[in-house]
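Design request, tokens follow.
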């Protein structure tokens, strides 16, 4: 495993902790070696110390064991290398030469602008052969055009079967559970269609602001940072047909069909069907929160959106007429990711209405911070008569499975090592996603309207509520 960007934030926060767990729990082959590469000067020993300081912060204290760390650190080596310099790559060849027929995973945890030179130089020193795989982190471009440029440059060196594009949402246990729920149970499938489902909500809300990533985020915004990848991938998993096999091409073919069936949002529809917002100063639990444009490394006149809500439809037989509402934002009232499947009402009301309870079943799949499934049903209210009220069937995965939940990167890194691309994005998926996202961003740019302000620590701009109210719907968290 060769990690470019080996001293960076991603390596420290996610990759090394994930590899540490895989090592500790016996999932790595005993010969597995980890080479961290970056420009900084380190000896192997000083790098291990540096890594220990960081990794111990990101691994649960009770899981950080001295003896496991030592045997893990013994797998690690460090090489100072400037990826923009072709002349530096022979050093890497020399290091990897003794294991020339072993699987080599090149993890590019660097700026995307370095992807092309890195793979070109790897090829030039003979390291991009059939034993090599490359892992790419988002952002993969800022538009269809720029994503294609990156993919062309990578594709010139690595064929598609050896390119692993990470969307870490697909590595989350709770997200994979969505597949288990849909395709491991006979119960839901007959109902999973427009005849029975009224609408779907997919929300990924974060309570944090942009933190230290202002320079990247201010160019990207929520649409490119979250919707183009994580939210659309969730939508695919909710909406796709059952794949013929649980293997990479079968799964990705089905996801692609959904992306291609998304109704385009263009022209005037952009104003009607999307809402973009930006957080203003606010307050949460008594703490004052800054406005987005006062965050570090953010332009004071920034028009970048930190919130998006939109309504889309999937033009196919299963989903025609069912609105899918997507929503994501930073500095929101709560950290919460969930999928709400709102079923249609009963065809005929037999029992008297009790209070204001809507008599519609609802399935809520919680992804984070808690993982669970909640099915709300109507039941008879105790006492006289036949008044009904909502009750929940509640399944909490932390209760159901006492084992430690794997971090997304543990699962994904192991999949790359084993060459399983099922949970990675194929090039055509990325392209289809950009093809759908580009006109929305263009529509926002054309209208010169600023994003709607919402107080940090709130549920986003009011316009996001109106978007649903127009159809007689409401975000689940906004219901009284
Ligand atoms: C990343 C985005 O892909 O996902 C971040 O770049 C975001 O802006 C993060 O905070 C959210 O991931 P998670 O796993 O914390 O929900």
């Amino acid at each position: 495993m060769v990690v470019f960007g080996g001293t960076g934030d991603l390596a420290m926060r996610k990759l090394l902790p994930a590899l540490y767990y895989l090592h500790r729990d016996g999932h790595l082959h005993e010969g597995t070696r980890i080479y961290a590469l970056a420009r900084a000067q380190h000896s192997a020993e000083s790098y291990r110390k540096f890594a220990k300081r960081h990794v111990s912060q990101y691994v649960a204290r009770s899981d950080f064991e001295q003896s496991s760390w030592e045997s893990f650190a013994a797998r690690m080596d460090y090489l100072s290398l400037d990826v923009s310099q072709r002349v530096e790559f022979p050093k890497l060849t020399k290091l990897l030469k003794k294991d020339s027929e072993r699987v080599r995973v090149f993890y590019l945890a660097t700026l995307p602008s370095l992807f092309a030179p890195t793979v070109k130089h790897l090829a030039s020193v003979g390291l991009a052969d059939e034993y090599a795989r490359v892992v790419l982190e988002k952002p993969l471009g800022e538009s269809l055009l720029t994503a294609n440029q990156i993919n062309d440059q990578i594709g010139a060196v690595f064929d598609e079967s050896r390119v692993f594009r990470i969307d870490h949402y697909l590595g989350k246990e709770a997200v994979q559970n969505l597949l288990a729920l849909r395709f491991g149970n006979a119960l839901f499938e007959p109902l999973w269609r427009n005849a029975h489902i009224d609408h779907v909500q997919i929300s990924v809300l974060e309570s944090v602001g942009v933190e230290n990533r202002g320079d990247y985020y201010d160019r990207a915004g929520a649409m490119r940072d979250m919707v183009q990848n994580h939210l659309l991938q969730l939508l695919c998993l909710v909406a796709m047909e059952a794949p013929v096999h649980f293997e990479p091409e079968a799964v990705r073919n089905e996801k692609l069909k959904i992306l291609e069936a998304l109704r385009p949002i263009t022209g005037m529809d952009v104003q009607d069907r999307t809402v973009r917002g930006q957080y203003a100063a606010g307050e949460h639990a008594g703490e004052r929160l800054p406005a987005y444009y006062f965050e570090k490394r953010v332009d004071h006149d920034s028009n970048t959106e930190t919130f998006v809500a939109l309504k889309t439809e999937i033009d196919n037989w299963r989903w025609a007429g069912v609105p899918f509402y997507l929503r994501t934002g930073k500095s929101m009232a709560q950290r919460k990711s969930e999928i709400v499947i709102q079923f249609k009402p009963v065809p005929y009301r037999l029992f008297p209405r009790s209070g204001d309870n809507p008599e519609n079943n609802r399935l809520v799949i919680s992804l984070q911070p808690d993982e669970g499934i909640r099915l709300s049903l109507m039941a008879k209210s105790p006492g006289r008569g036949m008044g009904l009220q909502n009750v929940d069937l509640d399944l909490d995965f932390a209760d159901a499975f006492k084992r430690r939940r794997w971090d997304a990167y543990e699962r994904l890194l192991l999949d790359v090592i084993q060459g399983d691309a099922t949970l990675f994005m194929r090039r055509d998926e990325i392209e289809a996603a950009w093809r759908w996202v580009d006109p929305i961003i263009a529509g926002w740019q054309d209208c010169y309207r600023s994003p709607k302000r919402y107080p940090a620590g709130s549920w986003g701009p009011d316009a996001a509520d109106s978007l649903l109210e127009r159809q007689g719907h409401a975000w689940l968290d906004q219901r009284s």
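Comment from the thread starter after seeing the answer: thanks! Residues 206, 225 surround 6-O-phosphono-beta-D-glucopyranose (CB under 6 Å).
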